[in-house]
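Structural prep section.
Before we set up the soaks we want a predicted structure of the protein with arginine in place, mainly to decide which crystallisation condition to try first. Input record follows.
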Amino acid sequence: DQTAVRRDRFSGGPARSFLSSLADDERIFAADLAVDRAHVVMLAEQDIVDADTAGEILAALDDVEDAGHGALPEGEDVHEAIESAVIDHVGPDGGKMHTARSRNDEVAACIRYRLRSDVLELVERLVGAREQLLDVARAESETVMPGYTHLQPAQPTTVAHWVLSYEQALQRDTARLLDAYERINQNPLGAAAFAGTPFDVDRERTAELLGFDSVAENSMDASASRDFLVETTSAVAALATTLSQLAEDVVVMASKGHVALDDDYASTSSIMPQKKNPDTLELVRGRAGDATAGLNGLLTNLKGQPRAYNRDLQRAGRHAWDAIDSATESVAVAAGAVATADWPAETLEAAATEGFATATGVADLLAMAGVPFRTAHEVVAEVAADLDADQDAPDYEVLSAVAEDVMGDPLGEYVDREAVERALDPAESVAMRDSRGGPAPAAVADGLDAA
Ligand code: ARG
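Run finished without errors. Recording the tokens verbatim:
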């Protein structure tokens, strides 16, 4: 029979399993059935295949679906195996299914079809994760915490402001995925090997049947290009990087007792009984490597490929699948860990005074009284340099003396003691910074509304 002939002629040698992607192709098994069905319906509608034969092929495809990927006959890939199974059911006429197409446009359609639902699944998870982060922001809008730059105490902020910063980043990560989605969702079918077909195919019709928004126009581009995988994997890598940064923050906070993770998101040590480790977040951080590896692997796979189709492409999809699977799991775990964590308000507020983190607020106060900011900075910097190692804020008298020294007038000429004391209080310091997007609870409330 023809199938046997084809099998004998090609992949019988020692490279047989090397050539085969059948196992990997389980990922696109359902997609291939959908693509086959759409193609066969279109062939019948265009009178390229008669309706009876098309009906028999469609019935055979149902049987193939019921039997599942595991029941497929041997083949170089899922496309060939499904075709063989159809021919086994229908007889030689089953071979009409492959009229006016190639595995090249077929596999491109399968990858796009499957990736589309994977991207939507990831976007759905992201939306859920963002809602969880917004709940944390709502609950912790008054919870003062230390903010850092260079991992050094910098300025007081709030848990809400911190968490909202990640929600905003995840908004953009979501938008990048949806942007990539538009270009994923184009129909390559009808491109055949790369050079089109003499049959009167209706490419808009298969696009419609498969839910593609448009047709990938040029047939050579349609079968050869995988940049839709590049931009999707790149968006996933950006997302995984955001998640990794969030995870790193929480790992550092946990090490300082600034956050208590729920047991569900912690691990212990097999030897040190006292340990509660933030392993889930370390794995989120580690998994960022899966996504960057995927992007690198994909770009490396693609970069030397000439037009049109090359078998290298059989190894392209896996990079995207690995990256997207890994990130999809990370989204839920990272958001879950943050959503269920406990933020010890007193510890955090005390920590927010460490290292004279209210210094900028004092300088701002002087500047608001008309002192040039650079001069105010100089006064406060001098005071900061003279602090004892265990001292988190200067005495008013010391500040006043330095101010007089630098500016010629006593501090009272510019600001009163009460205002300075307020600026030295982390909660007041946060409340003062009510500029748009800032940490003051009022500004965060606006951010929450917008989100
Ligand atoms: N399995 C292949 C892939 O995933 C499709 C087969 C096309 N093969 C070919 N020799 N043109 O890319």
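Observations: Residues 21, 77, 103-104, 107, 309, 311, 313-314 surround arginine (CB under 6 Å).
Flagged for discussion at group meeting.
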